[in-house]
Structure formats: structure tokens, C-alpha cells
UniProtKB/TrEMBL annotation:
Keywords on record: Disulfide bond, Growth factor
GO cellular component: axon; dendrite; extracellular space; synaptic vesicle
Main location, first listed in the record: secreted
Gene that encodes it: BDNF
Cited function: Promotes the survival of neuronal populations that are all located either in the central nervous system or directly connected to it.
UniProt entry tagged with the keyword Disulfide bond: yes
Protein localization: Secreted
Protein name: Brain-derived neurotrophic factor
UniProt family annotation: Belongs to the NGF-beta family.
TM segment ranges: none
Amino acid sequence: SRGGGLPSLTDTFEQVIEELLEEEQTIRQSEENKDSDMYSSRVMLSTQVPLEPPLLFLLEEYKNYLDAANMSMRVRRHSDPARRGELSVCDSISEWVTAADKKTAVDMTGQTVTVLEKVPVPKGQLKQYFYETKCNPMGYMKDGCRGIDKRYWNSQCRTTQSYVRALTMDSKK
């Protein structure tokens, strides 16, 4: 707060984000609440394509930015990347996709599993959507990534894989 008055909207927003992320971490670490970790920031069940990126994904991205910068609250406000005109090293695109696009996946044990496209619920079916981020082929820089000294280093943008919690079936079930 400034001069004993009310806290600024930015301070309040940052505090809410940090509290949400701390609460999520507490739930994930809690042994008696193992079932509450059945969600992922990149997976959503819905009757229609979500219109926005997932909230937890946005919160995690913001938190990662703050952690990487390791800044105080006051410094964080004035160093927003949008204000400084920063660009990503590689161009990427993000979109919601369904299991119709990707019917199988590899689980954490290395087994191939079938990804459920639809999940029956009492009032119909929900589709399982995945928020996928990949290199933008139209934004690819033929000489490599931004910010890399091309005289000394070779670079390229590559899409990587990650694990998410999703509803799947294996050959045993």
C-alpha cells in the first residue's frame, strides 16, 4: 500500500495470483488430497472449444516470468515485458485441440494409451481439450532463433513434449 492508503490494483492482482499458486501447490503436495490433483493447466473438459487460454496456464506463465526475474513486487510492476517490447526467442502458436487430432499418447511409464475424446456425463458428453503450444512454421526464422549470435552458434526452434493429466484408456482397461 502507498502512504497508508488502499493497495494498488496491481499489488492486489499480484497478491491474488501468488495466493492461488501457493494454494495449488499446497493441494498438490497434500497426501490426503491425491484425487484433487486430477487436473492439468493444459487440459479441459467442455461441451465446446474453450475461448480463452486456461487460467492456470496463464498464472503459471506469469509466475515463471516473475520467478525467473527474481524481482521485488515494486520492480515487477515496472518491468512488464509488454512495456519493454521483449520478443520470444522462438515464435509459437497455441490452440485447443481434441483427441480427434491425437488418438494415442505415451504415458509416464512409456506405454501407449488411447486418449479419450469424449467423456459421458449425466447430461450428455464432454470433450477433452488440450491446450497445445508449438513452433510457428510461418514465424520460423531460417537463420535460427532470435538473440543468438549466428557467427558462433547454431540454433533452431523445436516443439517439445510434456506430460499432462488426461483421461485415457490402456489395453488392460
